[in-house]
Design brief:
With about 250 residues, this protein is α/β, with parallel strands linked by helices. The chain has 8 helices and 12 strands. The longest helix is centred in the last third of the chain and has 16 residues. InterPro entries: AAA+_ATPase, ABC_carbohydrate_import_ATPase, ABC_transporter-like_ATP-bd, P-loop_NTPase.
Length: about 250
């Protein structure tokens, strides 16, 4: 059973047709590279899956169950997590504090409740260990590399035991060494049975980890095929319109 399925999803903003009849299925433990030029509809599709937008037509299913998300919290409760390009981290806080930001663990003393910092730091340490990241719970985010920051953002998604993680340009503006670190983190999510949709402009990174490639052009899905049966040249042609439809 697909962990995520889109059936004929379309989205209009007034006179603008942002997405047209998108059908796509993602299996557990599968990495799908979602590619397309600026304005192709990638961000709109991610926002529909994550509960920020509702589709104008079509249906979203999570784990085979129709899902009508009214906000991101409902999507998260259903097992959909998103790592946005800006990561939404607080530089002045530790890695553990960022992992639990907005979902802090508490302990009570009679009528009083306080932050359970010991439990949060211990849990964050386990999450970083599962991801085989060098990030430590007490590290300050402002002193971290781009790869370590991604590890914090990815660890945060693991709190809710997600079924699928949407990653928006995770390797943009970081060094080659940090790119390799982030790609390893993505593979570890896959190895844990979590589906990943990787949105990226970086062709080598997508082909390094993706099981399937999906390409959007002007709001239309122009290919959805195994990465082994495609190539960077074909994807470039599909994105630019030099190739109308994949073979």
């Amino acid at each position: 059973m697909s962990v995520l399925e889109l059936r004929g999803v379309s989205k209009r903003f007034g006179a603008i047709q942002a997405l047209s009849d998108i059908s796509l299925a993602v299996e557990p433990g599968q990495i799908v590279g979602l590619m397309g030029d600026n304005g192709a509809g990638k961000s709109t599709l991610v926002k529909i899956i994550s509960g920020n937008f509702r589709p104008s037509a079509g249906q979203v299913l999570v784990g085979g169950t129709p899902a009508e998300f009214h906000n991101p919290r409902e999507a998260r409760d259903a097992g959909v997590e998103v790592v946005y390009q800006d990561l939404a981290l607080c530089n002045n806080l530790t890695a553990a504090a960022n992992v639990f930001l907005g979902r802090e663990m508490m302990r009570g003393f009679g009528p009083f409740r306080v932050l359970d910092n010991r439990a949060m730091y211990a849990r964050a340490g386990v999450l970083f260990e599962e991801l085989k990241s060098e990030t430590r719970p007490y590290d300050l985010v402002r002193r971290m590399s781009g790869g370590q920051r991604q590890a914090v953002a990815i660890a945060r998604t693991r709190l809710s035991e997600p079924k699928i993680v949407l990653m928006d340009e995770p390797t943009a503006a970081i060094s080659v060494r940090q790119v390799a670190e982030v790609l390893d983190l993505i593979r570890r999510l896959r190895d844990q049975g979590i589906a990943v949709v990787l949105i990226s402009h970086r062709m080598p990174d997508v082909f390094a980890v993706a099981d399937r490639i999906a390409v959007l052009r002007r709001g239309t899905l122009v290919t959805d095929k195994p990465a082994s049966q495609s190539s960077p040249e074909e994807v470039t042609g599909l994105i630019t319109g030099a190739i109308e439809q994949a073979a």
